[in-house]
TrEMBL record:
<dbReference type="InterPro" id="IPR017998">
    <property type="entry name" value="Chaperone_TCP-1"/>
</dbReference>
<keyword id="KW-0067">ATP-binding</keyword>
<dbReference type="GO" id="GO:0005524">
    <property type="term" value="F:ATP binding"/>
</dbReference>
<protein>
    <submittedName>
        <fullName>Thermosome subunit</fullName>
    </submittedName>
</protein>
<dbReference type="GO" id="GO:0140662">
    <property type="term" value="F:ATP-dependent protein folding chaperone"/>
</dbReference>
<dbReference type="InterPro" id="IPR002194">
    <property type="entry name" value="Chaperonin_TCP-1_CS"/>
</dbReference>
<comment type="similarity">
    <text>Belongs to the TCP-1 chaperonin family.</text>
</comment>
<dbReference type="InterPro" id="IPR002423">
    <property type="entry name" value="Cpn60/GroEL/TCP-1"/>
</dbReference>
<keyword id="KW-0547">Nucleotide-binding</keyword>
<dbReference type="InterPro" id="IPR027413">
    <property type="entry name" value="GROEL-like_equatorial_sf"/>
</dbReference>
<dbReference type="InterPro" id="IPR054827">
    <property type="entry name" value="thermosome_alpha"/>
</dbReference>
<dbReference type="InterPro" id="IPR012714">
    <property type="entry name" value="Thermosome_arc"/>
</dbReference>
<dbReference type="InterPro" id="IPR027409">
    <property type="entry name" value="GroEL-like_apical_dom_sf"/>
</dbReference>
<dbReference type="GO" id="GO:0051082">
    <property type="term" value="F:unfolded protein binding"/>
</dbReference>
<keyword id="KW-0143">Chaperone</keyword>
<dbReference type="Pfam" id="PF00118">
    <property type="entry name" value="Cpn60_TCP1"/>
</dbReference>
<dbReference type="InterPro" id="IPR027410">
    <property type="entry name" value="TCP-1-like_intermed_sf"/>
</dbReference>
């Protein structure tokens, strides 16, 4: 019998692998995901704090933008990575509300943990959360107000709300106008719906001056310089040609030999080449163009003739910039030089070459009806300009999603309190244990006004009680939220704190789906990423059993 090796362990997982099951796995995942929420929670709202993130090369990012923080944290735990994903989704879909979605998901997980400890099964929690999320969408829809492209005042307030507390405070009055003008310029109507392609708004960062001196270019900024010193540096009422072909004499495809026996033949050959280039420039001149943007190369001889004809020319312009120029100036991109005519030309009020922060730029400004615009961002340091860029992206995203959906809500935690109270009432109508999960969902939503109150130095519990009283009793109480600036509960509609409906609908959808996915996991099997570390002398690490934990590759919350 001894020879049969009864008691031999059966190896299923590789050496160094780690397995966690049941409640242990669930709690580890919840803790990891909640950790991400705890990191970004203090950045919420106009008085939110900033985070300094230092990468492995020593580069510093200072921000309170949720998506930027989680992206730079480089979390390793798989459950924490899911929180990063929902922030990225929010950023792609809406452009703002990244902190909100992480904080909400973290709060839902916190409530889930309490329910699990009370003996409620994960599937019951999931079912309750799904019902609560659907009901929350109905409440949001009911309380949303309409907004159109014409409601400039409301759109400016949405932009201000998105930027407040993101480092753009000093300049928000002018910058919010720039953001709204940019979005309304590039917005197009398709099948009765408004569409905004945010790629049509280019952000160009240049260090120097102050944030307040950032400007909107109703056209395109090309980060190139004119080709020839003799070319004009500024052209008013410019007719613009866009060419996707080289102003060069084509070389032969095959290796050809030209035998020249006479110097006059050489002269004729060179003259012929020069004439070909001169004829190309003549076509540009004949079309009436005063400015030429070329996607490919321009020969030195062609440059000379262009300068002689007072045509401002830029070569090797990026394809994306050519498309933006076409949208801004209404010019056609011509592929064959011989086909160029006056019908292909676009228009800009001013085209000029300028030097900003040591870089030569060509500005195409004052276009009639530009469907592509640029924002030139200024600031004292690189960190200031970077944070201004993030604030403006949030503002543009907020305004664009408000216009596309055509609906907006009152911010400052007002809608979260309304949702919380609405879901509490809904829970009473639902039988079974699911109502506990719906009530937990309602309580989780209170995290937003609680955090805003804390950042203003108010008592969170007193603030929630006060808000619920206002919402329950007063007419128009639905608009009461946390006035962070004045440290009180107030009517936030009057103060113009507005957010697009899409921020809230997307945040609730993403947060609920991520939480449900985390709650479904009851078994974690992590294969070893690293070889087992060498044992130190004297058998440190408490024997060989540590190999499995080392192999976690960041599974633990360090």
């Amino acid at each position: 019998m001894a020879g049969q090796n009864i008691g031999q362990p059966v190896l299923i997982l590789p050496e160094g692998a780690f397995r966690s099951t049941g409640k242990d796995a669930m709690k580890a995942n919840i803790t990891a995901a909640k950790f991400v929420g705890e990191v970004v929670r203090t950045t919420l709202g106009p008085k939110g704090m900033d985070k300094m993130l230092v990468d492995d090369l020593g580069d510093i990012t200072i921000t309170n933008d949720g998506a930027t923080i989680v992206d730079n944290m480089k979390v390793e735990h798989p459950a924490a990575k899911m929180m990063v994903e929902i922030a990225k989704t929010q950023d792609k879909e809406v452009g703002d509300g990244t902190t909100t979605v992480i904080v909400l998901a973290s709060s839902l997980l916190d409530q889930s943990e309490k329910l699990l400890n009370s003996g409620i099964h994960p599937t019951v929690i999931i079912r309750g959360y799904t019902m609560a999320a659907l009901q929350a969408q109905k409440i949001l829809e009911k309380n949303a107000m309409n907004v159109t492209l014409a409601d400039r005042d409301i759109l400016e307030k949405i932009a201000t709300t998105a930027m407040t507390g993101k480092g753009a405070g000093a300049a928000k009055t002018e910058i919010r106008k720039h953001c709204v003008t940019a979005v309304t310029n590039v917005a197009v109507k398709e099948n009765g719906k408004v569409k905004v392609n945010q790629d049509d708004i280019r952000l160009v960062k240049k260090i120097g001056k102050s944030m307040a001196e950032s400007e909107l270019i109703e056209g395109v900024v090309i980060e190139k310089e004119t080709l020839n010193i003799d070319m004009p540096k500024i052209i008013n009422d410019a007719k613009i040609a866009l060419l996707d072909a080289a102003l060069e004499v084509k070389k032969t495809e095959t290796d050809a030999k030209i035998s020249i026996r006479d110097p006059s033949q050489m002269q004729k050959f060179l003259e012929q080449e020069e004439n070909a280039l001169k004829n190309m420039v003549d076509i540009v001149k004949k079309s009436g163009a005063k400015v030429l943007f070329c996607q490919k190369g321009i020969d030195d001889v062609a440059q000379y003739y262009l300068a002689k004809n007072n045509i401002l020319a830029v070569r090797r312009v990026k394809k994306s910039d050519m498309e933006k120029l076409s949208k801004a100036t209404d010019a056609n991109i011509v592929s064959l030089i011989k086909d160029m005519s006056s019908d292909d030309l676009g228009f800009a009020g001013i085209v000029e070459q300028v030097k900003i922060a040591g870089d030569e730029l060509v500005l195409v400004k004052k276009c009639k009806n530009p469907k592509a615009v640029s924002l030139l961002l200024r600031g004292g340091t690189e960190h200031v300009v970077d944070e201004l860029e993030r604030a403006i992206k949030d503002a543009i995203g907020g305004v664009a999603s408000a216009i596309e959906i055509g609906r907006y809500l009152v911010g400052a935690g007002a809608i979260e309190i309304e949702l919380s109270m609405g879901l509490e009432n809904y829970a009473k109508t639902v039988g079974g244990r699911e109502q506990l999960a719906i009530s937990a969902f309602a309580e989780a939503l209170e995290i937003v006004p609680k955090t805003l109150a804390e950042s203003a130095g108010l008592d969170a519990i007193d603030t929630i009680v006060s808000l619920k009283e206002k919402h329950a009793k007063e007419k128009g109480g639905i608009n009461f939220g946390v006035d962070v600036m004045n440290k009180k509960v107030d009517d936030m509609y009057e103060q113009g704190v507005f957010e697009p409906l899409k921020i809230k609908t997307q945040a609730i959808t993403s947060a609920t789906e991520a939480v449900e996915m985390i709650l479904r996991i009851d078994d974690v099997v992590a294969s070893s990423k690293k070889p087992m570390p060498p044992m130190p002398p004297g058998g440190g690490y408490g024997g060989g059993g540590m190999g499995g934990m080392e192999g976690m590759g960041g599974m633990g919350m360090e």
